[in-house]
Design brief:
The complex is a heterodimer of chains A (190) and B (351).
Chain A (H helix, E strand, L loop, with lengths): L22 E2 L6 E7 L2 E7 L5 H8 L18 E4 L2 E4 L12 E3 L19 H8 L9 H13 L6 H7 L10 H15 L1
Parallel strand pairs in A: 2-6
Antiparallel strand pairs in A: 2-3, 4-5, 4-6
Chain B lengths: L4 E3 L4 H8 L4 E4 L5 H7 L6 E4 L13 E4 L9 E5 L4 H5 L2 H6 L1 H8 L4 H6 L2 H5 L53 H7 L3 E6 L2 E6 H4 L3 H4 L13 E7 L3 H4 L1 E6 L10 E9 L5 E9 L6 E2 L1 H7 L6 H11 L20 H16 L4
Parallel strand pairs in B: 1-3, 2-3
Antiparallel strand pairs in B: 4-5, 5-8, 6-7, 6-8, 9-10, 10-11, 11-12
Helix pairs in contact in B: 5-8, 12-13, 13-14
Classes of the chains: A alpha+beta (190), B alpha+beta (351).
């Protein structure tokens, strides 16, 4: 983590450059950005600088994806872009146009009985079984990362899991249980 | 974050034209630029998104073996600038041809970031100096605001450069990939308004003394864009390793990073040696004196230790007489030689 956490100062938008190609203008108001989130297409009004993380949380109302450091240092904002894990805080929302975005809200499957609760993903169940969290703030990112880690086949040993999950920090220190949950889910999904 | 205009050109030529405008910055994976823009250390007026250019220009996103190139060691490998770190680290040809390069990628950042970040962007990442990255708390930074001073000079940041620092800037270059590429004579292909030019990776980076200012990290001109990296095959690259020493086991920048390669004859004589360092100087450093000292003799513990010392010895021809005290990074002068020696001994089967 940075030893000197800084605020995120904002300043008035700059003069815009001459445009010969489609452009999102800083001076102009927000403009529509089409995002496919958990299989549903959404059009959000966004500034060019909006991160995918802010677009998900404040634009789409999907607050499962967490803002930890907002600097690519903690992994709390991990989502999948076209099935690959990525950090929503370092992705501009406009960059995600046309890509499949999956968040923690998109992992569970709707049950056959519409009255029943959704069926949790094996990794979500494993995190509950193994008590793989304390405060839970990093958990959505941990789970999104774990789903990808298992898909990437990087669960051959606890050391391999630790390395493949190293982009997700847990300040409660639930790491041993997280590794156990990833191991359990990997076995179940094998 | 200051707001900016955003465009997503369809072709590399359009992207380069846009990048030549004042205040423009190229955006590929975003892991450096978005981070620095949010911190206020970069304030682009125009962000030129090149992340989808490979659709129109496939070589930007391809890993190719170039036929008819390369010497005795085999073919030259060409890595498109928009290849992600994750794709390159998993590439079987690269892993065989230059394990140190593949390892330098696999040991960097996190899987999430390696899925996003591109090779061209990785080379152009900026220093992790916490003073550079925090303009709100530290207005003085010659890298951000030339002439404003250096907040890090007397500070406790141990990540700073231990070799080649100047009183104007003590920032260290942090990238792992660049060191591995420098060790094995890789070349960057740069396209710009004047056409395409080649530059050795080692020549891409400028020290504050080279550039005449800490503000400029590389010799890239406005409107120029890295389009690919050519990595020539060599026996030393095929027998190579990247040793990264850092404060935690993963997801951390190098305190000292060493890319090393050896070509050993049948009797164990060193026929070729490559050593490059990162995290210790304003630019990735090739340790040529250390390499030369290893040639023509068998690798021994003594020879490896001597090479380590030479790699961290001040260059007598260099400008180090004006260098500031390494301060909080002094320990790197003790640690670094040992990291070099360990990398060499590992390659020689002696560690």
């Amino acid at each position: 983590m940075s030893p000197h956490p800084s605020p995120n100062p904002t300043s008035p938008a700059s003069a815009s450059a001459p445009a010969t190609i489609p452009i999102l203008r800083a001076g102009a108001t927000r403009r529509p950005v089409r995002l496919t989130i958990n299989g549903t297409e959404r059009t959000l009004l966004l500034e060019p600088r909006a991160s995918l993380l802010d677009a998900l949380r404040e634009g789409a109302g999907l607050t499962g994806t967490k803002k930890g450091c907002d600097h690519g240092q903690c992994g709390a904002c991990t989502v999948h872009l076209d099935g690959q894990r990525a950090l929503a805080c370092l992705t501009l929302a406009v960059q995600a146009e046309g890509r499949e975005i999956t968040t923690i809200e998109g992992l569970a499957e709707t049950a056959a009985d519409p009255e029943a609760d959704p069926v949790l993903h094996a990794v979500q169940r494993a995190f509950i079984d193994r008590d793989a969290f304390q405060c839970g703030y990093c958990t959505p990112g941990q789970i999104m990362s774990a789903v990808a880690c298992i898909r990437e086949g990087r669960t051959g040993s606890d050391d391999e899991i630790r390395e493949a999950m190293s982009g997700n920090l847990c300040r409660c220190g639930a790491y041993p249980h997280i590794v156990a949950a990833v191991r359990q889910a990997a076995e179940e999904l094998a | 974050m200051k707001n900016f205009d955003y465009i997503r050109p369809e072709t590399a030529a359009e992207a380069r034209d846009a990048a030549a405008r004042p205040g423009a910055r190229l955006l590929a994976g975003g892991t450096t630029l978005v981070d620095l823009a949010r911190a206020g250390a970069e304030t682009p007026d125009l962000v030129v998104d090149i992340s989808r250019l490979a659709a129109a220009e496939p070589r930007l996103g391809a890993i190719e073996a170039l036929e008819g190139e390369g010497g005795s060691g085999g073919e030259t490998l060409r890595l498109g600038a928009l290849v992600t770190m994750a794709r390159a680290e998993a590439d079987p040809t690269l892993r065989l041809a230059a394990p140190a390069v593949a390892q330098s990628l696999a040991l960097a950042a996190s899987p999430q970031i390696r899925n996003m970040a591109t090779l061209g962007g990785n080379l152009l990442q900026r220093t992790r100096c916490p003073y550079f990255r925090d303009p709100a708390a530290f207005p003085s930074c010659n890298k951000r605001a030339p002439g404003s001073g250096c907040s890090a000079l007397g500070g406790p940041w141990k990540g700073r450069a231990a070799l080649g620092a100047t009183a104007s800037c003590v920032a260290a270059y942090p990238g792992d990939l660049a060191a591995a590429l420098v060790a094995f004579d890789a070349v960057v292909e740069i396209a710009g308004p004047e056409g395409v030019r080649d530059l050795p990776v080692a020549g891409l980076f400028l020290t504050p003394l080279d550039a005449g200012s800490a503000a400029r990290d590389t010799g890239l001109a406005p409107g120029e864009m890295i389009e690919g990296i050519r990595l020539p095959a060599s026996a030393a690259a095929a027998r190579s390793t990247y040793l990264k020493i850092r404060d935690r086991a993963s997801y951390e920048f190098a305190t000292v990073g060493v890319a090393a390669g050896l070509d050993l004859g049948p009797d164990g004589t060193v026929r070729d040696a490559r050593i490059a360092l990162t995290g210790v100087a304003p630019v990735p450093l090739r340790a040529r004196a250390a390499e030369a000292a290893l040639l023509g003799a068998p690798l021994t513990e003594e020879a490896a230790a001597r090479a380590g010392r030479l790699a961290f010895a001040p260059d007598p021809a260099g400008p180090d007489s004006d260098a500031p005290d390494p301060g909080a990074a002094r320990f790197k002068l003790t640690l670094g030689p040992r990291v070099v020696a360990r990398a060499l001994l590992t390659l020689g089967g002696l560690a």
